[in-house]
Amino acid sequence: MTKTLTASAPGSIMITGEHAVVYGAPAIVCAIEQRIRIRVSTRADREIHIESALAAHHTDLATLADHPQLRFLIAALRQNPPASGLDIAIDSDIDPTLGLGSSAAVTAAITALLYRLRGQNPDLLALHRAAYRTILTVQQRGSGADLAASLAGGIIAYQNRPFTVITPLPAPPSGLSLRYAGYKTPTAEVLARIAASATVDPEYYRDLYDRMGASSARSIAAAERGDWADFYHELNQYQEHMTALGVCDHTQAEHLAAARPQAHAVKISGSGLGDCILALADQPPPQHQAVVIAKTGVRFI
């Protein structure tokens, strides 16, 4: 008898803590109401049929052949193999060229579905552990922060060392909006560039990461006590650290300067060298698109 399940998971944006979170510093991440939906139906055989806007792919449980557009999904199937073949259909509101945590959202949704197919209902931290293993098998490094937001929903404080902590935070009174640079440098490439620079002057980068982590921690504390003026101040301070890290290019610097007069805080969201800047403002600055906070994380439909 065929069993069909559907789950959705939201995309996400970084509020603060970029880069430093990889080394154990705290971060703030926000789930956004652009979602991935995955429907799985069991099959009587051992074949895996995947259909999405990015690719169509047929394989089987014995081989689980890779596909360059479906690496996280295939890795999740390898980590948590189903008992039978599956038909898998993926639908997305998230523009993959913008990032917005699309890979984490896919991983969150398929991991939850594979557990549900086995009749299991793990808690948030157990789901995160399983899905984070999948992400690390694909890209070797990463903090798991975007994954935590896709699983939990809302705005969260996240830290992965010495152990994983996911804590809900209140939303700021201002709106959130994004402006896309028109291009995106892959996160792995950005991290590799910084790692190469850090070999030349390791003390500078250790000190900078320490200051970034301290700023992110102060942002979390400000949000917890509802001190939004201090919260905005720390986000602006964090942008100065991102510039010192070398991930704010000319285009982003122009976009930041254009938004600053209309915003309480404005900074790069993500790894930098392209992609998006984030504004916290009463009205979206020119050429910014408002984003809606997703109140729920991964859910079954």
- Average pLDDT, to the nearest integer? 95
Q: What is the percentage of strand-forming residues?
A: 25-35%
**Count of DSSP-assigned helices:** 8
CATH topology (level 3) name of the largest domain:
Ribosomal Protein S5, domain 2
Query: Which regions are unreliable across 5 or more consecutive residues at pLDDT < 50?
Result: none
Q: What is the makeup of the main sheet?
A: 8 strands, mixed
The outline comes out as: globular
Q: What is the CA-atom radius of gyration, in angstroms?
A: 19 Å
Distance between the termini: 20 Å
Count every beta strand, where a strand is a DSSP E run of 2 or more residues: 12
CATH class category of the largest domain:
Alpha Beta
Structural class: alpha+beta
- The topology string of helices and strands comes to EEEEHEHHHEEEHHHHEEEE
Percent helix range: 25-40%
At CATH level 2, the architecture of the largest domain is: 2-Layer Sandwich
How many domains? The number is 2
Folded structure, characterized:
This protein has helices spanning 71-79, 102-117, 124-139, 145-152, 187-200, 202-225, 228-245, 250-259, and strands spanning 4-16, 27-42, 47-51, 56-60, 86-92, 155-159, 165-169, 175-184, 265-269, 274-281, 289-291, 299-300. Helix 1 (71-79) packs across helix 3 (124-139), helix 3 (124-139) runs antiparallel to helix 4 (145-152) and helix 5 (187-200) packs across helix 6 (202-225). The protein has 301 residues and is of the alpha+beta class. It has 2 domains: 4-170 and 296-300, Ribosomal Protein S5, domain 2 (2-Layer Sandwich); 175-290, Alpha-Beta Plaits (2-Layer Sandwich). Helices cover 38% and strands 28% of the residues. It contains 8 helices and 12 strands. It is an enzyme of class 2 (transferase). InterPro entries: GHMP_kinase_C_dom (IPR013750), GHMP_kinase_C_sf (IPR036554), GHMP_kinase_N_dom (IPR006204), Mev_gal_kin (IPR006205), Ribosomal_Su5_D2-typ_SF (IPR020568), Ribsml_uS5_D2-typ_fold_subgr (IPR014721).
